[in-house]
Amino acid sequence: MNGEINHSGVALVLTLARYFKRWSLWSKDIIFLIASDSTAGPQAWVDAYHDSHSPAAIEPLSIKSGALQGAVAIDYPAGPWGHRFDKLHIVYDGVNGQLPNLDLFNTAVSIASGQMGIGCTLQRMWTHDDTYQERLQTLFRGMISQGLGHASGPHSSFIPYHVDAITLQTVGDGWHDEMSLGRAVESLFRSLNNLLEHLHQSFFFYLLMHANRFVSIGTYLPAAMIIAANFTITSIALWFQSGRADTPLPNLAATNTKASENQDTTILQEGKDIAVVPAASLAVIERRLFLPFAFIGATHFLGLLPLYIFNNTPEPYLDLAFDVTAVTAIILPTLSAFLLSRFRRPTLQETTIIQCLSLLLLGMFFSALATLNFSLSYILGLFASPLSFVREIRGQAPGKFVGRNQKAISAIGCFLLLAINPVVLIRAATFYWGRDVVKVLVQAAEGWHIFGLWTQVVVWLVWWPAWFTGSFVVAGGLFA
């Protein structure tokens, strides 16, 4: 998994194959798979096993067994003569944030730590004293890994086929050897062998804080749903606002004295309280929907372009393609606002409806995504949450501060929105973690073509169009 040859892992697998073959207690077939790659190899095999492979790229399997019960991957990259280790690092993240049954994880932890005395760790937390800070750090690391949705190990290829799988990775320098690891794997296989049916009663949606502590879906799911509901509620408010006339409320005291003379006022009486408001402010006007619907459709169509470019561009040109796409994605909202202001400037009502439709789609997408990949929905929802508060500055009363500095405030708003631009955040994340953006894009393209990764779909067809719309709305104040 870390680019090292799995010498001792292959030796242990061959030894277990000869050891298991002598027993007659197995109620299920045991398949031993040795692949030349830690992720693409198992993916090709499991695709061919389920007849979902491309015949042009993957050969079919001539011999098959029944439905797969579970899978256990061994990553023991020691030398040919073995190497003693300290702990077992259990990797459980699947493609697109899918997780194995929690019972399989708990069984591995119970066998390794309870029977063999091998400490277990997860999410690359080599030292874990079960403190609050370390639990929180483990939780965040798990959410980032789940949100990225990449294949984290050989086991990731099996989980999309509803096959519970984990990877046992040896770490550290301790007193445990291949005998301890082999006994742990053998006990885990006997546990799977004793099952009469597929694992289905435990949790499939969880967040782990420690090898023995987890958070269930009923506790963490409302967090993502509240963020998604924020976009929906704001969209409803903007829809009602778009159907009202743009008539400001007058001074009530002055209007009350002239109520008998003004024919355009409505008096609402409840008990002894009387409110005098102009009738025009209560009137509902017709909504013009053609331009808003066309704009929203066009922005989501534009998201297909970077999705196609990054998944089909050869590696030597990916760096240039990313820079060109980043510059284009940044200036395109302002350029669109400038062009529309010259040919067909949207009215305030149309701008409100454009933002209303964008936030409505954002809330719908994130609420549905939260039930499939909570971490991805929650993380992107946090980044997109400022879009609920941006508005176009237009029609302010003369003499006020906002009215006098309309273009300056709009320019500042456009600049601040760059902080939540997907390409800017991708560049910042790769810089913070010391990763090469080209390698990240190559891994994403491999995930798209090999593993069916759809994180890029959410980024370019959900998040980026929403950012584009919010920046377009704010940039409209620059050309008033």
Note the topology:
Layout: H1 7-21, H2 40-49, E1 70-75, E2 85-91, H3 102-115, E3 119-121, H4 132-148, E4 164-176, H5 178-193, E5 206-210, E6 213-216, H6 217-242, H7 252-257, E7 265-270, E8 273-278, H8 279-282, H9 290-302, H10 304-312, H11 318-343, H12 348-370, H13 374-384, H14 401-404, H15 406-417, H16 422-432, H17 437-451, H18 455-475
Parallel strand pairs: 1-4, 2-3
Antiparallel strand pairs: 2-4, 5-6, 7-8
Helix pairs in contact: 3-5, 4-13, 6-12, 6-13, 9-12, 9-18, 11-18, 12-13, 12-18, 15-18
Q: How would you characterize this protein structure?
A:
The protein has 480 residues and is α/β, with parallel strands linked by helices. The protein folds into 3 domains: 7-211, no CATH class; 222-236 and 288-479, no CATH class; 245-283, no CATH class. Helices cover 53% and strands 10% of the residues. The protein has helices at residues 7-21, 40-49, 102-115, 132-148, 178-193, 217-242, 252-257, 279-282, 290-302, 304-312, 318-343, 348-370, 374-384, 401-404, 406-417, 422-432, 437-451, 455-475; strands spanning 70-75, 85-91, 119-121, 164-176, 206-210, 213-216, 265-270, 273-278. The strands form 3 sheets. It has a 4-stranded mixed β-sheet with strand order 1-4-2-3. Strands 5-6 form a two-stranded antiparallel ribbon. A hairpin with a 2-residue loop joins strand 5 (206-210) and strand 6 (213-216). Helix 4 (132-148) packs across helix 13, helix 6 packs parallel to helix 13 and helix 12 runs antiparallel to helix 18 (455-475). The protein is elongated and about 90 Å long. The two termini are 56 Å apart. Mean pLDDT is 86; it is low at 247-263.
